[in-house]
Amino acid sequence: MATLNIDGQTIEIENEQNLLELVRKAGIDLPTFCYHSDLSIYGACRMCMVEDQKLGLVAACSTPPVPGMVVRTSTDRTRKLRRMVLELLLANHDRDCTTCDRSGRCKLQTLAQDQGISRVRFGTRREVLPVDATSPSVVRNPNKCILCGDCVRVCREVQGIGVLDFANRGSRTVVGPAFGKALTDVDCVNCGQCIAVCPTAALTVKLETERVWRALHDPKKTVIVQVAPAVRVALSEEFGGKPGQISTGKLVAGLRRLGFGKVFDTTFTADLTAVEETHEFVARLTSGERLPQFTSCCPGWVKFCEQFHPELLPNLSSCKSPQQMLGAIAKRFYAKELGVEPRDLFVVSVMPCVAKKFEAQRPEFTYEGVREVDAVISTTELAQLLRQDGIVFDQLEEEAFDQPFGLVSGAGVIFGVSGGVAEAAVRTAASILGVNAGKVDYHELRGYQGVRGARVQLGDLEVRLAVVSGLGNATKLLEAVKAGTESYDLIEVMACPSGCTGGGGQPYPNDQAARRLRGAGLYRSDRVTQFRNPLDNLAVQKIYSGWLGGRDSQACHDTLHTHYHPRRRIDGKDIRVTRAPAEKPLEVSVCVGTGCYLRGAYDVLAKFGELSVREDVAGHLNLRATFCLEQCDQGVSIKVGDRVITGVSPGNAREVFDREVASLVAE
Amino acid sequence: MPNTTHTNIRLHQMPAFRARCQEAFALGPDQVMILVGVGTCGLAAGGGQVLRAIQEELRLQAGAIRERGLDLEIRPTGCAGMCEAEVLVEVQRPGGHRVLYGKVKPDLARRIVAEDAVGGHPIVEWTVHRQDPGQTGNRAPAKQLHVVMENCGLIDPERIDHYIARGGYAGLERVLSGMTPLDVVKEVKQSGLRGRGGAGFPTGLKWEFAHKAAGDKKYVICNADEGDPGAFMDRSLLEGDPHAVLEGMIIGGYAIGADEGYIYCRAEYPLAIKRLRVAMEDAEKLGLLGENILGTGFSFRLHIKEGAGAFVCGEETALMASIMGERGMPRPRPPFPAQRGLWDKPTNINNVETWANVPRILARGFAWFAGIGTEKSKGTKVFALTGRVRNTGLAEVPMGLTLREIVYDIGGGIQHDRRFKAVQIGGPSGGCLPESLLDTPIDYDSLLRAGAMMGSGGMVVVDENTCMVELARYFMTFVQSESCGKCVPCREGTKQMLAILERIVAGKGEPEDIDLLEELGGAVKDGSLCGLGKSAPNPVLTTLRYFRDEFLCHVVDRRCPAGVCRALLSYSIDAAQCRGCTLCIKACPAGAITGERGKPHIIDAVRCIKCKACLEKCRFAAIRT
Lengths: 667, 625
Hints:
The complex is a heterodimer of chains A (667) and B (625).
Chain A: E1 3-6, E2 9-12, H1 19-25, E3 49-52, E4 56-59, E5 70-72, H2 76-91, H3 107-114, E6 138-140, H4 150-158, E7 165-167, E8 174-176, H5 193-197, E9 203-205, H6 209-216, E10 222-227, H7 248-258, E11 262-265, H8 266-287, E12 293-294, H9 299-308, H10 322-338, E13 345-351, H11 355-360, E14 366-367, E15 370-371, E16 375-378, H12 379-388, H13 410-413, H14 420-433, E17 451-458, E18 461-469, H15 471-483, E19 490-494, H16 512-527, H17 538-545, H18 554-560, E20 575-576, E21 586-591, H19 594-598, H20 601-611, E22 621-626, E23 638-640, E24 643-645, H21 653-666
Parallel strand pairs in A: 1-5, 10-11, 10-13, 12-19, 13-16, 18-19, 21-22
Antiparallel strand pairs in A: 1-2, 3-4, 3-5, 6-9, 7-8, 14-15, 17-18, 20-22, 21-23, 23-24
Helix pairs in contact in A: 8-10, 8-14
Chain B: H1 2-5, H2 14-25, E1 31-37, H3 40-44, H4 47-60, H5 62-68, E2 71-77, E3 89-93, E4 97-101, H6 106-118, E5 127-131, H7 160-165, H8 170-176, H9 181-191, H10 203-212, E6 219-224, H11 233-240, H12 242-256, E7 260-266, H13 270-286, E8 301-307, H14 316-323, E9 347-351, H15 352-364, H16 366-370, E10 380-387, E11 393-398, H17 403-410, E12 420-425, E13 431-434, H18 444-449, E14 458-463, H19 468-482, H20 488-505, H21 511-527, H22 531-535, H23 538-546, H24 548-557, E15 572-573, H25 583-587, E16 593-594, E17 602-603, H26 613-617, E18 623-624
Parallel strand pairs in B: 1-2, 6-7, 6-9, 7-8, 10-14
Antiparallel strand pairs in B: 1-3, 3-4, 4-5, 10-11, 12-13, 12-14, 15-18, 16-17
Helix pairs in contact in B: 4-6, 8-15, 9-10, 9-12, 11-12, 11-13, 12-15, 19-20, 20-21, 21-23
């Protein structure tokens, strides 16, 4: 048995990769800013420095354990160093703690207090960098950033995107998107995993609490609220509870106290989504078209797919997400029943997710010119509302959701955890196909691995399913699917690791341990729910037979389904290729974004360049290279005047030029 | 030229080929060779014009040359180390007769051609060095020993046949003639060679780690990202003798089992990069680099990666990140590059000077090398001597020479006979050593004990007119802006150290600032992630150690003894010295000085802008600061 000695204790070395894990195993809570077990070792905060008898001062996180080591975690040198690191970080930190969003849950603040830093002997930070509040989901405040790099690594390593990185050197080092752009102008999918790992308030949720207050206090508005499944197993953490503790009843009561007219359960529309999506799936399975089908309830994943895999968009389920289905039904039918105009019905949703804020603002999700969902607040924002109103959460009496969107099945509940949507689909499919009577639990779809594959027998049919969470994992799976090395019928994708339980709007700490407990809570809740199958949900049946006028109706299609479109990743400037002397030249742009580039956009551009000096057009057109006309699946795309023309290739470039460009110049 | 007619030489053909190169390199009975220094230092001093002037003059003298039956040739060379005296022109005649001219301008160059090269009469007043026939031995100036610089200033760096004629690629020849990779590692280990880039890690041991590391793919890297202020040894070596580095890397590749290598050279060294490219092309043509080297089956490919100018990329893990296209930031070690380096493959990194030593060790044997230097520091070290010494430039000396010998015997002492104050060794990672330590022998361990380090070999000499606090502040500005920004102690610590130093030179320092500076310096040293950060406080900590009084003067007496920190100066006139000549009154741009001719003048402290104009004008040392 290999052991080492930490502060006098003999500790067994098992599979630990570094000293820090062993120190923590020894029950010593060595503080860190930049260490996360899911991320690569960074070794930058230097808080975990320990003294080894032979090696001297080393960072525990980046030192592999060697049997026989004698390590001390608390010596004069380590203590002084830790305090100095904190003092230095504080000196360069915007120490406006009293008005900080993160006060009380800030790691820097907590550690500084724990270490008893009562005075900062260095000057106060003078620079004030601009705050980026352009994103609908995430606010980036570089003045609060301690440059631990956690967000950089989670975005690149876990999500596989890499929106954030370091720029500049020395004390001018900052973290931000490429070329100093705003978060809205780059390929951020709004998942908020950066918020989940940020130790300070450098990355926070874009607050919509004030908008909610305004609506609540506006006598003209009827304000209703919906709550997503994963909120009920996390909200109590904000009030001293444990992750996974189910607090649905108190949550409903609290929302009523806040003044919401009706309190609905998004789980209801999760059931509806399961029914719609599964019918769509069974139809595709029968016809063999557009498989594998991808789930579409995660807005981070949908934007990711639009940006990076536009050719897969036809494979996405056309179903709206549960949040948007509820908003759509509320504005179209429920408002009418209440006798209010859609614009006076204010729909708020409480989500574990910050990408839902982006989703609710998508132009597709409007009805008669108003948003289907008017405001989206995160679990943490709801806790703020409750505190602001002096509501004592623990003392609330449990209450039940309102009808008609209050009755739910257990399948809808587990939408909040990775694997749950797939399991809901399997339960529904079994019912549709009339197989597996009595079977409800599909354990093969549950678990904590980022990518899980399962084969489920539905009568004679073997269905191949994959469940993936974390977009980095999704990328790996998609590559395998595209390469043909793996093949599936249905793929559930959740942008956040472990699904919505680990969403960017969940309480802090939002780590793997908390996420697992929250997931377990949802499965517990599923077990004790009266209905387990979405098709058994009487309220869902009633919606179909009533407002929607049956499945497959036009109303059903208009209300519950949507479409997707390729989306540019980064806002880039055009590159001018030729400049015409003519007074009103014809503007011609060729897209040279990645998708079009791969289809020969450079050759098309070169051909156009050669042709533009031809006698009949010379001097009459401005040729530009542009970045993304958002038709990536049909490229090469060009833009002539205001018209976008797709399907251009090096082969037909001359023909297109004659038809679309030269003819216009002749006119 | 032998090199244009040959391609793909075989191992057994090397001796004959070398013999032909030597024959061509040696001067014929009527040959006169004119060497012109066109390294970066030479070119900056006007080497290009000098070269053209010589070419023109040769055309003008064509008749006389024919008449005398002379065979005159021009040879562009790299820097021989005497940068102060550039442009250097040397006239060589058969039998070891050579005359070296310094500070040559085009007019003088023409005279050298006409009077010496053609006429046979050396111009005595411009001669900096002369060697008469019969004299042999090392070409190096007094107290120096040229090993890695032995070809610099002598061969045309763009001629592979020159390098071969001087014994180049003999090391590789020996290695490929039956030595196993482990034999090579052993030879380097026994030579006692230690890394010339900074910390002085034993090179053979480093190679052994990489040799033993499991992996079918390995890399070697040459660190040519020389970035210390005032250091230019590597540049001169690459410009003056690029093949030595190439040969070292090929041997290193063979020893550790790598078939690919990178030279990471800063883009600010365009001439070095150009000469490296020429060298690589020529070596490939001859079959000394690339596939199936010398027909032995060993293959080794080289690439040049141009660095974008970050000091931290001299740190090996940051350098590798930069080669891989990442932001140049160090990562924690372990894993060491020998375990997981470039693209996670075992990698061996050495700096330019280390690589340049390798071919010589393999050609002449470890015992020869181990015979030079001290017990624990073998061989020679090249220093870039700058600052207030008379002779600035490069000096290659055997390890163990004292600082005093370098400053006074090689550097020629302090300019204007001022007083020596300190020597800053090792750049921003090194330290400032005072006069009392001038007899410290130069070896890795003695320097480390003194609080400095060998570093890459920058040596800046400062005199009594330099303020040590200001010097420390300068180095802190450098490391602060070059810190990669990753770890807290280096990024934030150096920022606060700089703020304190700025406060002190601005006259706003307090005595407790000195303690804080020391405490902070200790934390940065203890806590930083990489070598850059760990050594960043050295210039400050050594000045605090050896020149504490000067700091105290600034914060207690509010005085800068060197008269540098403007905020702490107050100008006055010593009435006893002042003759009332009015020169200072005329010189003062602020109109702060008043007085009548013949009577002591007075400075109005409120108006005085402390510009030093009066001080420089006064002929009677009457101005006090």
